[in-house]
Amino acid sequence: MTKVLTDARSIRIKGRSFLAVMLSPDLPIDDWLIRLDDLAARSAGFFLGRPVVLDLTDLQIDRPQLKDLIAELAKRNVSIMGIEGARPSMLGTGMPPALKGGRSASDIEVQANEPADPVGKQAAAEPRPAMQSIVIREPVRSGQSVIFPEGDVTVIGSVASGAEVIAGGSVHIYGALRGRAMAGSIGNASARIFCRKLEAELVAIDGIYKMAEDMASDLRGQAVQLWLEDDAIMAEKLI
């Protein structure tokens, strides 16, 4: 029996773009996973709620190795939304879809910890004391990331939607916070987030996060400080 459609209401379809992180593994995979674990340990929440694309261009692995890699990433709470640069024969049922045509953004480079000098090797110079804070004297634009596990980050300007600031200490935004701010990324529950105008997509302190829809509506657009109390993110307006 043919069903006659009488409902004249249209179906609304909208286009929307999202910023995704591109992970580009290299061989040997086990060593690459160790470096990824190092990044996660120093920047808690780095992959939190973040769409991730796996770039296999020029990576010589077969389908079983790819499935193992995806499984290892899933153990680390890294969810792959798509794969770029893979041969069609490598993909199939139960695998992320093939993607192509993405637009490049700024690379996110995080340096690995320096290996210890061999015993008996004399240092060429006295080690410099670790920095405790950095100041970014320009806006952080969409697609950019500021990652500083060693201490506080201060931004003289705004943080755009699709941008993020990750600090081992506190985050200070002298402008609008429209992107993501993560403080205390390596285990600092006393870290705080300060901003002149709260319009954040996500805030996190010591691995505990709050999404935009979970924030009090009366704080949106206000000068705000956020801190951690009893494993919950608290917030109040700045006077």
* Strands, count: 14
Task: Report the major sheet.
Answer: 6 strands, mixed
Which residue ranges are poorly predicted, with pLDDT under 50 across at least 5 consecutive positions? 103-129
Helix-and-strand structural type = alpha/beta
List the total number of helices. 2
Strand order of the largest sheet: 4-6-8-10-13-14
CATH topology of the largest domain: Pectate Lyase C-like
Give the strand content: 25-35%
Give the SSE order as H and E letters. EHEHEEEEEEEEEEEE
Function: Cell division inhibitor that blocks the formation of polar Z ring septums. Rapidly oscillates between the poles of the cell to destabilize FtsZ filaments that have formed before they mature into polar Z rings. Prevents FtsZ polymerization.
InterPro entries: CAP/MinC_C, MinC, MinC_C_sf, Septum_form_inhib_MinC_C
Family: Belongs to the MinC family.
Keywords: Cell cycle, Cell division, Septation
